[in-house]
Amino acid sequence: xxxxxxxxxxxxxxxxxxxRMGQEKGLVKYQxxxxxxxxxxxxxxxxxxxxxxxxxxxxxYLGLPMIADEIPxxxxxxxxxxxxxxxxxxxxxxxxxxVPHVPTQLFVDLLAELNGNAIIPIDETGRKQPLVACYAxxxxxxxxxxxxxxxxxxMSLLSKIHPLYIEPSIDLDYYKQNLFSNLNxxxxxxx
Length: 191
Ligand SMILES: Nc1nc2c(ncn2[C@@H]2O[C@H](COP(=O)(O)OP(=O)(O)OP(=O)(O)O)[C@@H](O)[C@H]2O)c(=O)[nH]1
What we know:
Helices cover 28% and strands 18% of the residues. The protein is α/β, with parallel strands linked by helices. The protein has a single domain (8-190), classed as Spore Coat Polysaccharide Biosynthesis Protein SpsA, Chain A, CATH 3.90.550.10. The strands form 2 sheets. The protein has a 7-stranded mixed sheet, sandwiched between helices. Strand 2 (29-30) and strand 3 form a beta hairpin. The radius of gyration is 16 Å and the shape is globular. Bound molecules: guanosine-5'-triphosphate. Guanosine-5'-triphosphate (GTP) is lined by residues 13-20, 25, 53, 69, 73-76, 78-79, 96-98, 131, 182, 184. This is Probable molybdenum cofactor guanylyltransferase. Residues 10-152 form the MobA-like NTP transferase domain. GO terms for molecular function: GTP binding; metal ion binding; molybdenum cofactor guanylyltransferase activity. It comes from Ancylomarina euxinus.
């Protein structure tokens, strides 16, 4: 059970190169809406503040603070570390900009189980999903160290953070439908 004063900050990752998409991924329309808008709507009900991890001003229409990576081209760890430094929080909810099927309920479940540095869901194929996850402030030092030392592999960072991994609850229907499928190319969008 979270204390009432627990500050939760949402980090929407949108600072990637979008090389497979060929255009800014978060702004690509999917079923009538920009992909990043799904991510924002997923986190919004749970967060006191939200930020977009990006250097691209085209996201300014969303009215959220935008935070450019402290060191460019370091991947998601660089984006998460920079945002954690920029905004203090007790808990950070992280989401990629390209997972429109992730419901708010998944983060409700993660928050309910958080009891350590992090809690990360495992998808239906057994893959860990650290970019749709919940990190306590105690995890931030590990992100900063990874960025400072150039150890930018997420799986090796996780081995230090020791998250709790959970399978999303099976009684919810939407967990059966490719919940974590991310849209990387225009081919994925038209499927
Ligand atoms: N802030 C920040 N976010 C990143 C960075 N690299 C990837 N991301 C984000 O992390 C998430 C997963 O990354 P990818 O699916 O590889 O996205 P991408 O790098 O834009 O796409 P590709 O260039 O096709 O690999 C997306 O939401 C990206 O925007 C980065 O260097 N900085």
